[in-house]
Amino acid sequence: MRNSFFDRSLDARSIRERVLELDSAKVGFYSVGLYPASLAYNCAMQNEAGRLLLAVRPGRELLGAFSQEAFDSMDSGHVETVLDMGSRRVNGERIPNTLADLIQRCDLVVLSANSSYVEEDLLEACRLREELGRDRVVLACLAGSFNHDPISNSAYVLCEKQPNLAFFSGFHRHGALRNPFDSFTANFCHPNALTAMLGAQLLDRLSPNIQVSPGVHNVEGQYIKAAKNMASVFAGFGYAFHQDNPGVLPTLLTLLLDQCLDQAATVSMARSDRQRLYHRQPIPLTELGYAVPRIEATLVRDGDFEKVRDHTFTQLTAMVADVRGSMMLPVSGQPTRNFQAGQIMASQMREQGRCPASMEELESWCEAGGLRRGALEGLKSLRFWPQIARRYAIPVNDCSMVNLLYMAIYGRPAVKETAFQVMTESRELSNYCQESVRPIHSRRYAEALQNLEVPEALDLVVNAVIADNARSAMRRDVDLDEANNAGIPAYLKLMDVIESQLDA
Is the dihedral of CA 112, 116, 117, 123 positive or negative? Predict the structure, then answer.
C-alpha cells in the first residue's frame, strides 16, 4: 500500500504547491470512540476546531462513548462545536459525515476503530481513496491490539502486515482531554521520515494543548501499545491485590515497563525493512529528534552471526509515557480500562480464591463491573499471545509477566492453582519477578546445583558434562506432581511450565 502525501512527480512547482496545501490541511478521525471524541472536545475548548473533522461508524452516535455523567459535565457550546466537526449543513439540516467525506476533505485520516474493525476500515478507506482520486491522503490507525487471521490461525501486528500504514498514539486518561489545563503528548509514526514529520505537524496543530512528535517506528509503536495494554491489566491486579505490600509494586511495575520495551526491540530487529528504514530516508533521522544508534546486538541468521545496530526508542517518548501512565493509579479520575480490568480480576480472585475459569468468565466479571468487553484491548491481545511470541521469537525471559498472566487465564487447572499462588503471595511474586528475567540457561544450572537431592537436578548436572546431551537436558519438561513432591517453590514450578509449554 502506497501511503504518502505526495505523488511520484519530480516537478518542483507541483511539489511546492502540495507543501503549501498541507500547511492548512485538515485531519479526520473515523469510527469515533472515547479517545477521538475527547480529543475533539479538547480542540473545541482551544478554539482550533476548524482543522479537525469526525465521522462515526454507521449506527453509532458521535458522543455515544461517554457516560451520561460525563456528558452532563460538558460545556454545551463545546459539545455543539464537536457535533459540527462530525457533520455538515445541508439546507439547515445537520448531515453526519462519512468516511468518504473525510477522505474528500482531509489529507490525513486516522482510522480509530479497535482491532476488530480496523482492517475492514483500511480496505474501505483504500477503495474510497482510489475511487475519489485522493491517492495523496495518508491513512493511519490507533489500534492497540494484535490482529488475527482465522483462516491461517496466525496473529500479527497490523503495521508489520501493512508496513506503510501510519500509527498514532499517546498517553491520555479518561476525562483528561476534557480538562482545559491538561496537556497531551503523542507520537505519529510512519516509515518515511518526511511523511512522519508532516503528519505529526498536522496533528500537533489541532490544539495548543496537544504535542505530537514524529517517528519512524510504526511497527514498534503499535507493538508497544498492544504490550502496554496487557501489562496494564497486570498492573491493575498488582495495585489492587498487593496494595498492603508496597515493596512488590515498584519491582512489578518496573519489570512490566522494561519487558514491553525489550519485546519491542526484538520485534524491531526482526523487521524485514530495517535497512530501508534507517538508510534510505529523505532526511536524517536525527532531524526528527532521534539519537544516534545506541542499541547493538549480535543475531544468528541462517546459521551466520550478524551484528546489527538500531536507534533507541528515545523519540517515542509519548509511547513510553503511555506505558508508564497506564500502569499508574491516578490521583484524580479513573485509570485506564485495562487497568480497571486488572483491579476487577484481583477483587474476584480474592473473593473466590481462584483464577478465572476462562477468559469468558473474566470478561463477564469486567462487564458486571461496568466495562464493555469490546474496549478491553489488553484481554484481546492476550488471546493471541502465544502466536505473537512464536512469530517474533520473543525470549521467555523478556515476557515472563505476560506469560504469568496468560497462564492464570488459559492454563490447565493444575497450572492455574500454581499461578494463583504466585500472583497472590507477595514472596512468590517477588521471587518470580527476580528469577524469571534470567535467561533459561543461566538459571537452570544454578537451580540444579542448589537442589542436588532432587533426581532431575542431579541428572541435569551429569548430562551437562556430556556435551551432546546438555541441550536436551535443558529443555526437559517438568511435571507439576513431581515438582510438588520434590518441594520446589511455586514460582519455579510455574516458570518451568511456561518455558516448556509456551516455547513448544
Answer: positive
Cell reading at 472: 536436551
CB within 8 A of 417, min separation 6: which ones?
354, 355
CB 345 within 8 A of CB 233: yes
Q: At residue 264, what is the residue type?
A: A
Q: What contacts 22, CB < 8 A, 6 or more positions away? A: 5, 107, 198, 202
Q: What residues form DSSP beta bridges with 297?
A: 308
pLDDT by residue (tens digit) across 27-72? 999 988 888 888 888 888 886 558 999 999 988 888 887 878 878 8
Supply φ then ψ for residue 131, to 5 degrees: -65, -40
Q: How far apart are CA 54 and CA 32, in angstroms?
A: 7
Q: For helices 413-424 and 490-501, give the axis angle rounded to 10 degrees.
A: 130
**Torsion, CA 418, CA 490, CA 345, CA 327, rounded to 10:** -150
Decide the pairing of beta strands 27-30 and 108-111.
parallel
How remote is the C-alpha of 67 from its chain's centroid? Answer: 25
Q: Give me the domains of the chain, ranges plus CATH numbers.
A: 12-224 (3.40.50.720), 230-428 (no CATH)
